[in-house]
Amino acid sequence: MNKISRRKLITAGLAGAAGAAGLAVAANLAKRYGLIPPDAGVLYGPGETLTYAAQRLLSRHSLAREFARSEISKDPFANEVDPLGVEFNRLQDGAFVDWRLAVDGMVARPASFSLAELKSLPHSTQITFIACEEGWSYIAEWKGVPLAHVLNLVGALPQARYIVYRSIQPDWWDSIDMADALHPQTLLTLGMNGSELPVPFGGPLRLRVPRQLGYKNVKYITSLTATDSLKRFGKGLGSSAPEGGYAWYAGI
Amino acid sequence: MPEIFHQRHPAIVRVTHWLITLSFLALLLTGVEILISHPRFYWGEIGNVNTRPLFTLPIPSSRDTVPTGYGYVLPDQNGWSRYLHFEAAWVAVLTGLLYVAFGFSKGHFRRNLLPAPSDLSPTMLANDIARHLRFGPPSDDEAWSYNVLQRLTYLLVIFVLFPLVIWTGLALSPAIEGTFPALVTILGGRQSARTIHFFVTIFLVLFLLIHVVMVYLAGFRKRVGAMIVGRLPKAVERL
């Protein structure tokens, strides 16, 4: 009896130690390979971390599904937008000629682009769906400059791990990791369904991240910051979404 | 001292049973919260308030953009609901995998869930269904072994409903769908996947209700006790 419990004890102890060591190694590896989301410390962090890590391992380079022109939604739903404010109205009155996209942070050549300058850059179009976390969705043709191209122009430094992006709407900002930032379908979007991007849909400039839900596709983008850490931004959770109770990663 | 209890459910079945119960209740509650932000269902790839729904649930919504006919909007609970939905989904999936691995490797499915061919004859099935419809008390040996309807129902839940609800849930992930587009296209599109996810949930809730009623009819204390401590009192004689 005694012998068995001692053997059991030693086995359990060894298994426990191996488990703890395994977890520590896994946590270290996960951190090194960027598998820990910035909101991992919140109440539901463990589930969030599993989801983000699993999807980064499985789908780092996968492409969002593209559709036929005939599948474009005839009557897309823009969702409500809060009043856009005096500054937006002034820019809109001037046909957005004064709209600027500032790019700074961990880049070799910080820059500021007008919409005309963005329009002169190489474009790409995609017919993809946008899905709201509420459950609804629509398909549109989106046209814009791949974010990767702009990051290349300003010389994003290799140590940059996230791109923070901000809306002209106060307190509305978000961030994505480099897997999404450098993804060929991530677009600084200027056009939709063959015309300029309408204001209700985020015009003049919206970031399309088609592998994530609608709320990561922030409207009215005014600035981008490349960074190696999200700690200094807001409450350090990666975007304004977790501060309002929503997950930072919305690839679900 | 003589044994006064007999072993009924192995530890792994008991632990996974209650973990699945907890995570399912969390998934259900948070699923309802997410659902009320858009209580409309569609078929095909897309659907929103500007398109015709397949059907609409006659309930209020937590978004004022959804026309419901109610003059009020429910509070938005989607943030924590979504976080908890996916966390509970991980618990359910990992627990389910553990249970299925155990079930196959230790003969649990073969011994305890696979019905005997003789039990599947139309007469036997009809008898068993009639007995259930009369709410007749279970026979004594059913304290130790599942009857044929129970076996078939559990197999349906484990091998059809749970895999389907996980599949349709995964199909709603934009990142997963990019990696495995067939998950969505086989179902006819993203909104179809969402609608199927809803209906499978309805079947799982039906199962849960009937399951609890049956446990109650068979003797709530004894049956739940057996699923917690794994044993039945000797009074329930083993045949």
What does this structure look like?
The complex is a heterodimer of chains A (252) and B (239). Chain A is an alpha+beta fold and 252 residues long. Chain A contains seven helices and ten strands. In chain A, a hairpin with a 2-residue loop joins strand 7 and strand 8 (195-196). The N and C termini of chain A lie far apart (50 Å). In chain A, 43% of the residues are buried. Chain B has one domain (5-233): Transmembrane di-heme cytochromes, Chain C (Fumarate Reductase Cytochrome B subunit, Up-down Bundle). In chain B, helix 1 runs antiparallel to helix 2 (78-105), helix 1 runs antiparallel to helix 8 and helix 5 (148-170) packs across helix 8 (190-229). Chain B is elongated, with a radius of gyration of 21 Å. Chain B starts with a strand and ends in a 6-residue tail after the last strand. Chains A and B meet through helix 2 and strand 4 of A and helix 2, helix 6 and helix 8 of B.
Summarize the structure.
Chain A has helices spanning 2-32, 45-59, 85-93, 115-119, 147-154, 178-181, 240-243, and strands at residues 100-105, 111-114, 124-131, 137-146, 162-167, 173-177, 187-192, 195-196, 206-208, 221-227. With 252 residues, chain A is an alpha+beta fold. With 239 residues, chain B is mostly helical.
Which segments of chain B are poorly predicted (pLDDT under 50) over 5 or more consecutive residues? none
| Average pLDDT figure of chain B | 92
| Share of β-strand residues of chain B | under 5%
Distance between the termini of chain B: 22 Å
